[in-house]
Amino acid sequence: MTTRPPSFCPDCGTELGRTTEEGYDRAYCPACSAVVYHNPVPGAGVLVRDGADLLLVRRATAPHVGQWTVPGGHVETGESPAEAAARELGEEAGLAVDPAALDPVSTHALGPRDGKYTVSVLFETTRAATDGDPAAGSDAGDVGWFDARTVRDGGADVEVRGFVREGLRRVLDGD
Fold it and tell me: How many of the other CB atoms lie within 10 Å of CB of 57?
């Protein structure tokens, strides 16, 4: 499996051809007789609410430099999505949370971006369930609290990606 569209076999280096398998057009290695799958990468993020406010981080690295979003990122090998969301919250916003204190909100298929697809699980928790003081870390340039309903409705001075607004809608509207 590769995260971006493959051109060469990851096992033997042969240029890939195409085949149809299970109704899908797939990369195929004529030397190995193997299908090379191009699957989405798992990701996880967390909505942290403090009353009517939502914690957001401003991205300091690609992709989406300068954009506000929820703390989140890729799930590492051996992690559950909740563990990844808790780790990312600590890395990006300086807050610790027990993964068991994260409630799943929604799952989103994102992409493609440069041929890469992501499936992201969005969780929610409260500020009271976290420890520490919010502080920008790793790939965050800033951290702040914003009115959750204003962010959901697109009326804030911050523009967030659609999956964040959809998760907020589910949390705030109860569906």
Answer: 27
Task: For the chain of 175 residues, list the mean pLDDT of each consecutive stretch of 10.
Answer: 84 96 94 92 96 93 86 96 98 97 94 87 97 92 92 82 87 79
Task: State whether 50 and 30 are in the same domain.
Answer: no
What is the domain-level CATH number for residue 15? 2.20.70
Contact (Cβ atoms closer than 8 angstroms) between residue 130 and residue 143:
no
What residues have CB less than 8 Å from 155, skipping those under 6 apart?
none
78/10 same-domain check: no
* pLDDT at residue 1 in the model: 61
List the Cα angle 44/47/51 in 5-degree steps. 165
Residue keyed to tokens 């509207």: 173
82 plus 148 within the same structural domain: yes
Q: What is the pLDDT of residue 53?
A: 95
Residue 29's domain comprises 1-39
